[in-house]
Amino acid sequence: MEVERKTSEERADALEESMMKQLHVSAAPAQAPKLRRGTGVLFGGLTPAGLPLDLAVLAPMPPRPTIVDFFKLRFMPHTVTHMLQSANDAQKKGEPEETVLACLLHDIAVNLIKVDHGWWAAQMVEPYAYVSEKVSWAIRHHQALRFFPDSSVGYGYPERYVQIFGQGYAPEPYIRAAYEQARKHKWYMEARMITVHDLYAFEPGVKVTLDPFVEVIGRHFKQPKEGLGFDGSPVAHMWRSLIYPDNPL
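Below the sequence we write its predicted structure tokens.
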């Protein structure tokens, strides 16, 4: 039987190729993600804490959906409970209605996208004129403030963030820059109060519904007559993405 003989150059090339393959394998993650962690929870994947989400068949939205319809038919149940408990805590402790509204709406964008959800949520509500600039500013800046304690109001770094981000996590420079800018602003406490009432664990035995907040929404959120997503605003496409999350393109 004839044995195939390789020249020294061929052997060297084969060794180099083998080493490159080994390098590629060792550099690759142990298990590639099937879905990016920053994906909005309505689209599946994981909660911010890393827990898997079960998706259900969605009910159709009404032709002219209101923000209440989104709470009932599109926002994932655990995000609704979280926002209701935050708003309930603010209301119980005597916060102004604008602060209660900010707590109620601060995490709506987590359903669309987790990354920079404070900025996204602020954009989603800004065009609806009854929402004051102060409310959208607070929603936007809670994104950065939540990483930085403020002992003057009893806000400490959340233990939940150690679980999510790991011990010793340092926020990205743009987050710190936003925090530094926000703490010098006249509305700093508006955003800080969202973090104070941003409950990171569901309160046992506390049942919350949207009913006590419907009138608050009515006084502070201008519902477009065409329906959210169909009013031609600069953010209508964001609401439509929540209406039609199963559209392939």
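Residues 8 and 14 are 10 Å apart (CA to CA).
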